[in-house]
Amino acid sequence: MNASIQRFERKAPPGSDLPVLMVPAVQGESLLDALPRLQSDIEAHLATVGGVLLRGFDVPSVDRFREFAAGFGHPLLSYEFGSTPRSGLGGGVYTATEYPSHQAIPLHNEQAYTRVWPMKIWFHCVTPALEQGETPIADSRAVLKRMPAAIRERFAPGLVYIRNYGDFDVPWQKVFNTEHRHEVEAFCRQAGIAFEWKPDGDLRTTQRCQAIEAHPVTQEQVWFNQAHLFHVSNLQPEVRETLEDVLGIDNMPRDTTFADGSRIPDAMLDEVRGVLDAEAVSFLWEKGDVLMLDNMLVAHARSPFKGPRKVVVAMAESHSNLQAH
Question: Where is the TauD/TfdA-like domain positioned along the sequence (predicted)?
Fold first, then answer.
């Protein structure tokens, strides 16, 4: 067993098994070559624990990572209706979110602010940061259980996500991967998103989505939303104050309300953030690592970092609850 595997350390809440560590049969084993041997075990761990870390394998290129992810039998997904800037590397592989290195990205399930999301997500560490740069993860079932009952009850009917695209957020052309309004409108109608073109040509969308959802295979209830990320309380206080003065509370770049349209108190979302932090599991990346998650059972985040860092992402197995609600 090589040194990086011997020193695998993680910070985790009591009782957490995340992530299941899987290692080569022999030193230098190719991850792609190991897939037939590992696939059934990986899928079993994903269905129970929710996440697997593959460490110590040879992953010589992003192309090989792409082949590994595609080897689970589902076409890799394009990043549609995105909420953060990232760059496509071809064939369904993307850079991780391109926020500045000093910023933390809170725990969240990928695209939980929509009603169509990937069930599987892979992260591949091409270059670990010099300092920090972890991708913390958390069990979404444990988050739901730890969440105060009053918050669970208030969130249960769902949430409404509001987005005003333009100068203060990702432009709609980049979010929808098109310059054509009619293509945006077709996407929104299919995805159950209400849209409005404003006089200045910018776009406003609203969508009612789940806050708590049942996993389609295990039927377990999970905390599955991004209220704490979209709500105005996620902004730095001075940024929030400036934007509210300039735009008004109804035209903020992003916001979240309860399903009935009433405002979510800042203090309630502070409690939500506290629960997420308490369930966080973190470990330092090693070059070549691949982390595979069930996107409903496990949330992910990003710690601030120093130095160059390259982590790439792939997603697969689209799931929708549009017919269920």
Answer: 26-314
